[in-house]
Amino acid sequence: MAEGDTLVSVDYEIFGKVQGVFFHKHTQAKGKKLGLVGWVQNTDTVQGQLQGPISKVRHMQEWLETRGSPKSHIDKANFNNEKVILKLDYSDFQIVK
């Protein structure tokens, strides 16, 4: 397996103006477009988990940290618990209520 294809899992939490701006829907759409799996949930922040090839996860992390949904304003993005995985734990990218 090439280095960019190594599967990883990482948790994330996004702070800023991320409520009422469809951040979770845009996150789900971007994750699916990149072929990632995991989940996203609105709390006081937006949090979730990404899983997939490390190159795609890195792309998604950059998007979460710098872009987000069109009307969002991201103050901070935390990424934790990154680990190499042998298989994906999810089959899709879900919005968790």
Automatic annotation (TrEMBL):
GO MF assignments: acylphosphatase activity
Annotated Gene3D superfamilies: 3.30.70.100
Residue span(s) of domain Acylphosphatase-like: 9-97
InterPro entries, per the entry: Acylphosphatase, Acylphosphatase-like_dom, Acylphosphatase-like_dom_sf
EC code: 3.6.1.7
Keywords: Hydrolase
Catalysed reactions, semicolon-separated: an acyl phosphate + H2O = a carboxylate + phosphate + H(+)
Record-stated family: Belongs to the acylphosphatase family.
Name of the featured protein: acylphosphatase
